[in-house]
Amino acid sequence: MSILKFSKTHEWAKIDNNTAVIGISDYAQHSLGDIVFIEVPKVKDKVKAGSQFGTIESTKAASELYSPLSGEVIEINKDLINNPQWVNESPLERGWMIKIKIENNSEVNNLLDEAAYKDFVAKESH
Amino acid sequence: MDNRLIFEKSDEGRKSNYVKKPAIELKEPGQILPANLLREALPLPSLGELEVVRHYTNLSKLNFSLDTNFYPLGSCTMKYNPKINEELSSLEGFLNIHPFQSEACLSGALELIYNLEALLSEITGMKRFSFQASSGAQGELTGMLMIRKYHKVMKNKKRKVIVPDSSHGTNPATSSMCGYETVVVESNPDGLIDLDKLSKVVDGETAAIMLTNPNTLGLFEENILEVADIIHKNGGLLYYDGANFNALLGITTPRLMGFDVIHLNLHKTFSTPHGCGGPGAGAVGVVDRLTDFLPAPVIDKKKDKFYFNYKIKHSIGKVRAFYGNFSVLVRAYVYLLRLGREGLLRVSQNAVLNANYIREKLKNDYNVASNKPSMHEVVFSCTRQKEKGVPALDIAKRLIDYGMHPPTMYFPLIVKEALMVEPTETESRKTLDYFIDCMLKINREIEQNAQTLHDAPHTTPVKRVDEVRAARNPDLRWRFSAK
Amino acid sequence: MPYILNTENDTGEMLRAAGLKSLSDLYSHLPSKIKISGEPNIPSGLSEQETGQFVKGLAEKNKILNSFNSFLGAGVYNHYIPSALKPLISRAEFLTAYTPYQAECSQGILQAIYEYQSYICLLTGMDVSNASLFDAGSSLSESVLMSLRITKRSKVVISSAINPEYKKTLYTYLSGFNFKIQEIDFNKDGATDIDLLREALDDNTACFALQSPSFFGIIEDTEKFSSLAKEKSALTILVANPMSLALLKEPANCGIDIVCGDGQVLGGSLSLGGPSFGFLATKNEYLRQMPGRIVGKSVDREGKPAYCLTLQAREQHIKREKATSNICSNQSLNAIQSAIYLSLMGKAGLRDCALYSLNLAHYLYEKLKEIDKVKLNFSRNFFNEFIWQADNGKNIVKKLYKEKIIAGLSLDGVSPKLKNGILSCCTETKTKEQIDSFIETLRNILG
Questions:
Q1: How close B28 comes to chain A (CA, Å)?
Q2: What would the DSSP string read from start to end of B210-260?
């Protein structure tokens, strides 16, 4: 059973034992608008919690992607590169970006669960 | 209309015979140069002159332009571009001169630049100017690199540059290109610099603040002298982005406001044409203590003779080859000769009057972004329209149907649903009234037929363009194979 | 008052509408300390007639290049400009239009720029081009900055045979950062010394930048340089003369990663060196690191082909301090002018210009070779200009000038190795008679 967590920079992590799949939240894709370009690291690259792991662009905005957790990239969503609209259409499923091997499980505690993230977004968008 | 690309109109074998065949024995490239340096084919089209003339004439007719349409485009100062500017800048004596000719051959050009510098110095209170920069942004780069070098020579440890959140994007981008960290200071609810917030971020490591005044909300920074004081006390300098100087010609000078380095957009305030986005010119002016850092050369005069002076103690070097966009300088100079001292004030006063007239006539129907008095431009916040389902974008696009170029949209970033309107002084009251009527009509259309606005413009050669598709699948050039 | 349409009556009514009494009320909220007292100390305005007379007087003080038998080049070239070019590019709908952010009322501009981008790609063989930069100096600088972003390295190696004006610009553009720039000297043939490059390249080298034809006119063997750079995963940047590309191998086929340069040769006047435009073309993989505006082809809501500015998320108005460059205004009109020029000249016309320039320059070279006191030490692989040397070169240039001949650019001061050097250029505008007359006068001077 995987658990879904969110960061305050609007990325999500679906955590399954020692691995996590990472993407951006529905709120994030909505505020960016139509996504036109995504840049993610290569397999075997290291990502660090709170640090930039890629970039995402819409026609009106460009934004950094910050990793919710530290670890090594074990898979990337190759098809997404040519289908950036999936981030808009299905941010939590087809719009996933990278899968990492979690380096430090305790970092999970720094993330928000879905309800807490919803509260956070409600406050931020106000 | 035949809207094919020029390449698709090509027919092999056409040739217009423009250049004279030399009276020497002609060799093929392969007889002169090694084959490995040469190309095999030259994939260019072959066209007849009439085809080319028709093609580009017809393309030109698809555009709005200042000579055909009103451009209430904020921060861009789309004022009339006088025809005498064009005639005089096209004189053979200005076009057929080479930058490596001797100073004696170029005396008229040097004199013109020298005279232009004197006029701008008087208008701005700056000591000296450099004309190398080809645009406002390149002017910013020039000025900020001078500030950087100044601090280096003075052994000041500086790390950051402050910009308000209402600033032009070029300001933070320039700061980054100079290796500085950008610190953004939030504006107060009126849209002006918040002195308390500013004081908190300014310290000994502050290299400079970059400001536009009037700012991008079209408001005069009333506390400019206090801002200057805070920055100067911490050993920082004030950079003036002159994009909005049209509001202040003859009223005040950047010098009096406390600025140390400035750029003027000659293609805005000084009437040179925008040419689809360039060439412009960024004239960079400095106060006394920064003249040693100007790009080399400057033009000086010794016994009636003008010359390029490369002896600038701490010069930052060059920001472009040769001496800048000379033809643009000629135009700005001609404009200033025409205006003269009495004209300057009339320009700024009428620019501000026109903006305030529009504000008054539209303020009941469109929210004004700030309660502070407007200068040469007024920013509306179309939130009431947006609540009814019509964003600023639709209003802007609908104006095209009424024959007017949209105002600057969604800028400054701190105003929701922003439409930034700068009428300039060269428009007549009738034109302003027409714009006002159309804006009011559009506001009524929101109630009557919002779909008309969502679908606007209706009268243009194409409807709204799919920008998402353009960015997702970039098609940036034509290829022969695509034929 | 020129250019202001508000009458006194209008002004009065508009002030009343705004609840104001006088024009000075518009500025009543400005601190009085900063207001100018009285009028600025500049002359009174002139009538159009007077302005014309005065400015024409200044223009006449210049001695135009065409009044000499000139062999001056060195970055700005006197090429023939077809008569149809000026009326087209002077059309108000190009000249007085704004940046085409509003695509629906700017389709002509956008298509013309798309055609420009295509032309640059066709000439260079590269995948993509931007919509122009300011000049060769800024386009070289932006190319180098691009390579630093792409490789995330911090050392820049450049050929010393790049035009000094462009080099100076590059040094200034990079002065805000701690990047190391190393210059590679030229060898006895005047070509960039490949052995020195081999020594200079290391794992921290972002790029090697060279010019071909170089400042000395020499066509460099760019393939050798690019393959050497590739060994260290450094990019190769080429400053190219687009006119020469009518004959020379496409940079894309020489392993070049970024091509930049000046477009003045494509229909631009001399104008004291500006405005011209800078071009920049690169490979698809580096597209998002390319600075400046870019036009793309798309469709409108009804599916009709339509153009718009695209990939704007790279630019300063969106990305602010994280933008690829601060550039906003570029040199659109000059870029469109070059597209019209290339369309008028066409494949055969452009090739003629380049071929005639090549032939005339080599004819001049052969004629100079016949003069004993003239030294021609450098490679014969040049395009339209080359360096020759003679004792007291600077003095010879002065004497020729008295005979209304501008022999070229005197290179004293550029490098000790180039003392007494003169850089002479021929374009298709030169004639055999002019070259022969130059040679005859030179013979007389040299005695």
A1: 47
A2: EEESS-TTS---TTHHHHHHHHHHTT-EEEEEGGGGGGTTTTB-HHHHT-S
C137-168 core/surface letters (b: 16 or more CB in 10 A; e: else): bbbbbbbbbbbbebbebebbbbbbbbbbbbbb
Domain covering B84-339, topology: Aspartate Aminotransferase; domain 2 (3.40.640)
Cα B110 from Cα B133, distance rounded (Å): 17
Tell me, yes or no, if C137 comes closer than 8 A to chain B by beta carbon. yes
Name the 3-class secondary structure at C206.
strand
> CB–CB of C322 and A61 under 8 A?
no
Residues of C in contact with B79 (CB under 8 A): 3
Residues near C292 by Cβ (< 8 Å), separated by ≥ 6? C130, C131, C132, C133, C142, C280, C315, C325, C327, C330
Cβ-defined contact of A36 to C313 (cutoff 8 Å):
yes
State the CATH class of domain C85-340: alpha beta
> CA A59 to CA C311: how far, in whole Å?
7
Q: Nearest to residue C271, comparing CAs of C212, C316, C215, C331?
A: C331
Per DSSP bridges, beta strands A52-58 and A62-66 are antiparallel
Contact state of B42 with C65 under an 8 Å Cβ cutoff:
no
Distance of residue B470 Cα from the nearest chain A Cα, in angstroms:
9
Contact B143, B239 (CB under 8 A): yes
Nearest CA to CA, how far is C89 from chain B (Å)?
9
Residues C346 and C338 sit within 8 Å (Cβ to Cβ): no
Query: Which residues on A lie below 8 Å from C313 (Cβ)?
Result: 36-37, 57-62
Residue B354 CA: distances (Å) to CA of B34, B351, C13: 66, 5, 11
What stretch of H or E contains B162?
strand B160-164
C-beta atoms of B322 and C272 within 8 A: yes
Residue B465: name the closest of C46, A59, C2, A23 by CA. A59
Contact B56 C122 (CB under 8 A): no
Region C65-80+347-446: CATH code: 3.90.1150.10
B460 and C CB contact within 8 Å: yes
- Do C357 and C427 meet the contact criterion of CB atoms below 8 Å apart? yes
What the block records as the tokens of B442 is 């559009």
Q: Global pTM?
A: 0.96
Q: What is the interface pTM, i.e. ipTM, of the complex?
A: 0.97
Instruction: Give the SS3 label for residue B368.
Output: strand
Most B CBs within 10 A among A36, A56, A89, hence the mutation to make, goes to A36
- CATH superfamily assigned to domain B347-468: Aspartate Aminotransferase, domain 1 (3.90.1150.10)
- The answer to whether A59 contacts chain B (CB < 8 Å) is yes
Question: Is B471 in a helix, a strand, or coil?
Answer: helix
What is the rounded CA–CA span in Å between residue B338 and residue A81?
57
Whole-number Cα distances in Å, B458 to A59, B397, C335 = 23, 9, 30
User: pLDDT 10s digit of each residue in chain B, 483 long?
Assistant: 688 999 999 998 888 899 999 999 999 999 999 999 999 999 999 999 999 999 999 999 999 999 999 999 999 999 999 999 999 999 999 999 999 999 999 999 999 999 999 999 999 999 999 999 999 999 999 999 999 999 999 999 999 999 999 999 999 999 999 999 999 999 999 999 999 999 999 999 999 999 999 999 999 999 999 999 999 999 999 999 999 999 999 999 999 999 999 999 999 999 999 999 999 999 999 999 999 999 999 999 999 999 999 999 999 999 999 999 999 999 999 999 999 999 999 999 999 999 999 999 999 999 999 999 999 999 999 999 999 999 999 999 999 999 999 999 999 989 999 999 999 999 999 999 999 999 999 999 999 999 999 999 999 999 999 999 999 999 999 998 644
Domains parsed from chain A with CATH numbers: 3-106 (2.40.50.100)
Helix H or strand E segment including C168: helix C164-173
